[in-house]
Amino acid sequence: DSNIKITTTISQTLDYLDVTIENNNGNLKTCIYHKSASEPYILPYSSDHPRHVHMNILNNALVRAARMCSTVEDFDMERLSTEMILLVNGYPPKFIQQYMKNFFMKYNAMNVWTELNSESYQQLHHELLYKPTRREQKVQLETNDTSFKKPNNYEHKNQIYLHYTFENGPLINFKKEYRQIWEKYYVYPGSRLRNTRLILGTILNRTLQSLLIHKKPKKDILTKMESSNQAASRTTQ
Question: Are strands 27-32 and 19-24 parallel, antiparallel or unpaired?
């Protein structure tokens, strides 16, 4: 790709993608690289999304920091930065503290949060650094299982999927109220739907970024547009 420019740099510190790599007296040190041109306190969305989506922002930010930062001090700075970003975007402090606590309890690393324990952080860092992603796990499973077969199209025949656009306000309790109606009027004894599982999913509102970004048209279409514009200008003259 001609648009990708690769430069060779020899230095004690260099930035590669979103990682800063440093040679600290023979020891490799890494941390997250923040581009100065990007806005530091912008989130992809701040409202009209289910609670678990907002929770994922905090969890993914902490996982990313733990994987990329080789020292507990750099990790803690990223944690504080993430907390500041969420506060600026209107996240409740109680919400932030609760899910931060859940993250450290999940990996048995509470003393990293409370005491900046370096040994515990190194265990957390290595655990998350070498932990395979969902895609890697799927590829590994397909590689190891020679008898892997694609799921049958009728595998979920006893499931009903219902998607709705999530909004704060009147629809905040839609899922709970719909399940109550489902159980009351459709899951009665003798009903054909008694053993059918109802799965309610949310459709997220489009962000401003998704509205402004569109796929670039093909080159021949752009060329035809330029030719027609030039012809129109000559006709006008």
Answer: antiparallel
Q: From residue 210, how far is each of 52, 116, 206, 214 by CA, in Å?
A: 21, 39, 6, 8
Q: What is the pTM of this model?
A: 0.58
Q: Can you tell me the distance from the alpha carbon of 231 to that of 209, in angstroms, rounded to the nearest whole number?
A: 35
- The one-digit pLDDT tens for each residue of the chain (237 residues) are 677 777 777 778 888 788 888 888 888 889 988 877 665 555 555 455 556 666 788 888 899 999 999 999 999 999 998 898 888 877 888 988 999 999 999 999 999 999 999 999 999 999 988 888 777 777 777 777 655 555 555 455 678 877 777 666 666 777 888 888 888 888 877 787 778 888 877 776 666 666 666 666 667 776 766 566 565 566 555
- Cα gap 149→56, rounded to integer Å: 31
DSSP state of 200: E
Q: Cβ(175)–Cβ(200) under 8 Å? A: yes
